Amino acid sequence: MNGPDGLRLLAVDDEEPALADIVRMLEASPAVGVVRAARSADEALVALAGGPLDALFLDVRMPGLDGLELAQVLRRLDRPPAVVFVSAYDDFAVRAFELEALDYLVKPVSRRRLDEAIDRVGRAGPGGDEDEMLAVDAPRGGTRLLARSAILFLQAHGDYVRVVSDDGRFLLRAALVDLEERWARHGFLRVHRSFVVNLRRAVEVRPRLNGTAVLVMADGTEVPIARRQVGELRRRLAV
Question: Can you give the pLDDT at residue 43?
């Protein structure tokens, strides 16, 4: 324990060695104040009744109520703690982010990845603007995690959404309108029927002769703007 002013965390894992490891690593962070431990979902619920927590570092596969089911229960609370999943498998990443998990760590957990997750928990506190992670299909199979702030724009692509980010281009099986509504308060705006952009990563509006325009993103990519959106976009960007 580092003191009462740091983050209040609960580590949940049914395997004693894994639980001891994650507790030890969490306690080593200067941002962490108190780390409690639970060996099952039932123990975790008891710990939650003992006082407020900032986040759970939660194993996925556990006997009885598993980590995903526990996260579903937590969403019913008035002020649920953040959830960071910790698993030996990446198979559950998509489901985890459907449950609005802040992060998904794959065992063995590196110090760097754990520190990133702890930082997200800290920024997700009162008044914070947590940098949500998005699980997308990796080009060579598996799942890639992208920070919302690293995303430049989203493009409708059949039954998928093409996600263009600092780390490359990826596909996500989702509806563009769902991401538009989910991230509107974070500066994402539909500028064309096929494009939703991250206005925080836009650098210039370039007019075209036909009354339309293109929006230049931070990487130099030009995104088309529908004619009816040009005025609104200029107002939003104050240009």
Answer: 94
Domain map of the chain by residue range? 7-130, 136-237
Query: Exposure of 21 by Cβ count < 10 A (0-12 exposed, 13-18 middle, 19+ buried)?
Result: middle
Identical fold between 7-130 and 136-237: no
Q: Fold for domain 7-130?
A: Rossmann fold (3.40.50)
Q: What is the pLDDT of residues 79-110, one digit of tens each?
A: 789 999 999 887 787 778 778 888 899 999 99
Distance CA(56)–CA(159), nearest Å, equals 34
Give the architecture-level CATH label for domain 136-237: Beta Barrel (2.40)
CA distance 81 to 116: 17
Given this model, what pLDDT does residue 223 score? 95
pLDDT digits (tens, 9 = 90+) for 101-141: 888 999 999 999 999 999 888 887 654 455 677 888 877 77
Q: Is the pLDDT of residue 14 over 70?
A: yes
Which H or E element spans position 178?
Answer: helix 176-183
Indicate the SS3 state at residue 41: helix
Strand order in the sheet with 195-198: 143-147, 133-137, 168-172, 160-165, 151-157, 195-198, 188-192
The 3-state DSSP class for residue 132 equals coil
Closest to 106 measured CA to CA, from 154, 72, 138: 138
